[in-house]
Design goal:
By secondary structure, the chain is of the alpha/beta class. It has one domain: Ribonuclease Z/Hydroxyacylglutathione hydrolase-like (Metallo-beta-lactamase, Chain A). About 20% of the residues lie in helices and about 30% in strands. The protein has a seven-stranded mixed sheet with strand order 8-5-4-3-2-1-18. It has a seven-stranded mixed sheet with strand order 9-10-13-14-15-16-17. Strands 7-6-11-12 form a four-stranded antiparallel sheet, with no helix packed on it. A hairpin with a 2-residue loop joins strand 6 and strand 7. The chain is globular and about 50 Å long. The relative contact order is 0.16.
């Protein structure tokens, strides 16, 4: 199984020339089928697919980790390049009206951060939405987990992230936060989009549902950039608890948290930037 980073904030390789970085995330998983996990903002995905020799029409399935623009923005460009319809696996809450709610001394304001188009618009371009929840198999060696078990009263530490229901602004519970478990020859591998539900909680819930006591690799966004220091420490201890052999951070992890994780894991640490390839 091969995992290639198509979209991310940074670029890890000088060749091929012309690769684009953007605030967002997208992975291509190649095994018996080709599965696209997230699509970035939409600026770089078609460009990067082509430069890395990947055929957009070879993508058999698409999985969306959650309903933020930096993971869904490339969905429409990918669909428009496809010659036929493609299944898109997603949690129903991903279509909530997601916003960033910014409080300032001069007043509060909202920034839309959700899907840029309607569900019907995507369906008109060939998206065959498969609504999923909890823990489910989506391909031969690929499982998705959402609706993560968390302590009662749990709230994200990034208090800006909300959603609107009618005109009411509500805390986003991130039930739609969807991570992937890849069963590989190297061992179980976890891919995360942003880990808004908490990297610690995701790994614990996966362990509970699968019986896995070790994870070979954890790759992707961990949303530790805005996390309290004690939670970053808990994440590091959780990686150790599950004997993670490859910790590859990206996107929303943040420089400080990535540096701290690197200092603990050294040669077992990597940055999952555009052009990075992980073989299992």
């Amino acid at each position: 199984m091969r995992v290639t980073v198509l979209c991310e904030n940074t670029i890890s390789v000088p060749i091929p020339k012309g690769l684009m970085g953007e605030h967002g995330l997208s992975f291509l998983i190649e095994d018996s089928n080709s599965v696209l996990y997230d699509t970035g903002q939409g600026v770089g995905i078609i460009n990067n697919l082509g430069l890395m020799g990947k055929d957009v029409n070879a993508i058999d399935k698409i999985v969306i980790s959650h309903g933020h623009y930096d993971h869904t923005g490339g969905l429409m460009p990918v669909l428009k390049q496809q010659k036929s319809g493609v299944p898109v696996y997603i949690h129903s809450d991903a279509f909530q009206n997601k916003i960033a709610y910014i409080e300032t001394p001069d007043g509060n304001f909202e920034i839309p951060i959700g899907f840029q188009h309607t569900k019907k618009d995507y369906e008109a371009c060939g998206a065959e939405f498969k609504l999923i929840d909890h823990f489910i198999k989506i391909d031969e060696n690929i499982y998705a987990i959402s609706d993560i078990e968390r302590p009662k009263g749990w709230k994200t530490w990034d208090i800006r992230l909300k959603y609107k229901k009618d005109e009411e602004v509500l805390d986003d519970p991130f039930d739609d936060d969807l991570s992937l478990l890849l069963e590989t020859d190297s061992g179980p591998v976890v891919l995360m989009g942003c880990a808004h539900a908490g990297v610690v909680e995701i790994l614990d819930d996966l362990s509970e549902k699968t019986g896995h006591k070790e994870f070979h690799a954890v790759i992707g966004g961990t949303h530790l950039g805005s996390a309290p220091e004690d939670y970053v420490n808990r994440a590091i201890e959780t990686f150790k608890k599950y004997h993670v052999k490859v910790v590859a951070t990206s996107h929303c992890t943040g420089f400080h948290a990535s540096a701290k994780i690197m200092s603990h894991f050294k040669n077992e640490f990597a940055i999952a930037s555009v052009g990075s390839i992980f073989d299992f």
